[in-house]
């Protein structure tokens, strides 16, 4: 039986509560004998800053690098709003993405039929929605240098960020998108701003070339990022896989997530390249929602996005697609029975807390 | 009677058809004697490229610089998709913005009650929506240098764009937003990505300072750009004035526009700083929608956004607020009577073409 090492990083706010539910799910799959999961838990984000002045310690980074998968909660909160830029909670996430070289961020936006009414869009526009945003995660304006604020002679300040992409960075994320498209409806939309950005021009050229030469059977469409944001609001079901850079991916995936009406449901996977000899890839799984400091500690947070993130780990890190399907079905099943945490509660359904939702999913399994 | 010089640049696609309707409106206001309007028309975008190989000629630029206001249609279309980057249709718009120093882009997103059902959002979420996006228009990643694609030794290409903001660039756009907020509900949301961008950090600091020192009575909220996009979809009416940089403004204003369900209705104004001696400011007015090449020449395009752009010119360039209100009311009146161009047509309303819509607005005036 294969053995996997997981690093659990609950982070701040509701992170700890929802991670507790994931542990019961991991244990269940371990007990079932599909694989053996060893896990260790550590601090990250604001709580790590409080403990040792850094958003992520070197020891934690070493553990993350050694792990088969990192399961990440959420970081940040008003408490750390004025800590220095370099040690702010988000710095931990950026460092993990960069050092583990997690260049491919997969963000599914799925609208569960049971929750379609929670969307701010009309039901018919979102019912059955199933989009996968493939976001480049280790390049672009997030990491390009120079990235600085300098004080000019006249006392003015000047801030610079650098949007930077190379051919190979675009090629590898394009391949991830095309490969995933082949397992879905063989359709990719590539979003950039080629009309104003040189990185958009290169992005467009490289994606076009990879599509033509390596994936002639996948339909490729190019869309300007601003128009893509619009089209997501107008008629989201026209899209299947959307591939884009780090910054556009940040915004477009949030828009897509919000269309579903249930942010508390959406997982994400951040993947590295498969190792040349072992075939294993570094990976981090995290919910799309944030640390929700306003409801932290109250036992009302929705653990589903966090649990669904572990389902993505089963699929993409452990090759356990059938088990991932099982877990996804358990989630859908519990929703079908009318159980709802506060964020997705509507008249006529049964309101439950974090622990009850976790337990219900276990029971459904 | 004050005399104003207008430069009309219809551009490509439906530009010419909708500009023809604006002319009748300009003539009406001229005949009414509120001011005297002289206008001249010229080529821009793809049609200028076809005529003389550049998206905007030096003569046209000189006329634009001399005009009291530029009334701009729309540029671009598949015909010019593969012209060189420097002479692509959009280059004209960027050059006009830059050379006329039109740093403040005002994009109202208004949901007309008569059209609320056209929104993809539920009616109650958008009915009465009235957001004003104030977008910085001459800085950021649109214009920062370096902006280039270089070929590396290994044959790879490397594309760079530079996001760049100085204190004074942020100060002046912040003041525009705060000033406008004072004429509305005294509420500004400033959107950036301070958690990953140094320009976001500076943006946040400068807007905070201007707010505190110069506009203590305006409520200021900071929101991350990705979250702002989400919140626009979730509960758009929480916003009134949103101020943001060039690239975020591009996307957020498109999302806001799409929420209203009627892109063909939305105007925009791009303003320079008032001249120190004359008080006049350079300005360009254009609809938010594009050149719609698919329906060009068919006489079915909606001229309202273009006409409403002239209403913004009356207000912001000519100090004719009452006349602007009159024109806005005429537009609302025509909609109230059930007249609709194809893009906003619904069961039970009367479908009209471009010319009929223009004539109806004139009649209403
Ligand atoms: C927390 C923040 C740094 C992060 C990002 O901007 O990438 C978040 O918004 C996300 O999308 O994962
Ligand atoms: C046409 C294009 C260059 C332009 C922009 O990106 O600014 C457009 O999208 C806009 O919003 O005015």
3D structure, described in words:
The structure is a homodimer of 365-residue chains. With 365 residues, chain A is α/β, with parallel strands linked by helices. Chain A has two domains: 197 residues, Isopropylmalate Dehydrogenase (3-Layer(aba) Sandwich), CATH 3.40.718; 159 residues, 3-Layer(aba) Sandwich (Isopropylmalate Dehydrogenase), CATH 3.40.718. The first copy, chain A, contains twelve helices and 14 strands. In chain A, strands 2-1-3-12-11-4-5-10-8-9 form a ten-stranded mixed sheet, with helices on both faces. A two-stranded antiparallel ribbon of chain A has the order 6-7. In chain A, helix 6 packs across helix 7, helix 8 packs parallel to helix 9 and helix 10 runs antiparallel to helix 11. The interface between A and B is large, with 56 and 56 residues. Strand 7 of chain A pairs antiparallel with strand 7 of chain B, so a sheet runs across the interface. Bound molecules: 3-isopropylmalic acid (IPM) (2 copies). One 3-isopropylmalic acid sits at the interface of chains A and B. Chains A, B: Homodimer. Chains A, B: It catalyses: (2R,3S)-3-isopropylmalate + NAD(+) = 4-methyl-2-oxopentanoate + CO2 + NADH.
Task: Please supply descriptive tags for the structure shown above.
homodimer, 365 residues, alpha/beta, Isopropylmalate Dehydrogenase, 2 domains, ten-stranded mixed β-sheet, 12 helices, 14 strands, 40% helix, globular, binds 3-isopropylmalic acid, 3-isopropylmalate dehydrogenase activity (chains A, B), manganese (chains A, B), IsoPropMal-DH-like_dom (chains A, B), NAD (chains A, B)
């Amino acid at each position: 039986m294969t053995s996997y090492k997981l690093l659990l990083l609950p982070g701040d706010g509701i992170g700890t509560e929802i991670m507790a539910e994931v542990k019961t799910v991991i244990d269940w799959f371990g007990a079932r004998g599909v694989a053996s999961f060893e896990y260790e838990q550590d601090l990250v984000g604001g709580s790590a800053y409080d403990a040792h002045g850094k958003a992520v310690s070197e020891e934690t980074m070493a553990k993350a690098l050694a792990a088969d998968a990192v399961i990440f909660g959420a970081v940040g909160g008003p408490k750390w709003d004025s800590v220095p830029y370099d040690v702010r909670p988000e710095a931990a996430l950026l460092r993990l993405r960069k050092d583990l070289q997690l260049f491919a961020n997969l963000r599914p936006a799925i609208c569960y039929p049971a929750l379609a009414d929670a969307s701010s869009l009309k039901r018919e526009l979102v019912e059955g929605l199933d989009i996968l945003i493939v976001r480049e995660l280790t390049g672009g304006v997030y990491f390009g240098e120079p990235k600085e604020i300098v004080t000019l002679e006249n006392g003015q300040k000047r801030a610079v960020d650098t949007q930077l992409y190379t051919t190979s960075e675009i090629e590898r994320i394009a391949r991830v998108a095309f490969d995933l498209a082949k397992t879905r409806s063989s359709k990719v939309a590539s979003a950039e701003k080629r009309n104003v950005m040189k990185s958009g021009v290169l992005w467009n050229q490289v994606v076009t070339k990879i599509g033509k030469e390596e994936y002639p059977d996948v339909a490729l469409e190019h869309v300007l990022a601003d128009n893509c944001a619009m089209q997501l609001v107008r008629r989201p079901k026209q899209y299947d896989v959307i591939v884009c850079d780090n910054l556009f991916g940040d915004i477009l995936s949030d828009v897509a997530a919000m269309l579903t009406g249930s942010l508390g449901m959406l997982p994400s996977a951040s993947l590295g390249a498969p190792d040349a000899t072992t075939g294993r890839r570094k990976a981090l799984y995290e919910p799309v929602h944030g640390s929700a400091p306003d409801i932290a500690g109250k036992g009302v947070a929705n653990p589903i996005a966090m649990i669904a993130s572990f389902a993505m780990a089963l699929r993409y890190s452990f090759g356990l697609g059938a088990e991932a399907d099982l877990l996804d079905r358990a989630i859908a099943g519990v929703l079908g029975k009318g159980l709802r945490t506060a964020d997705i509660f509507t008249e006529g359904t049964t309101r439950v807390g974090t622990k009850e939702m976790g337990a219900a999913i276990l029971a459904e399994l």
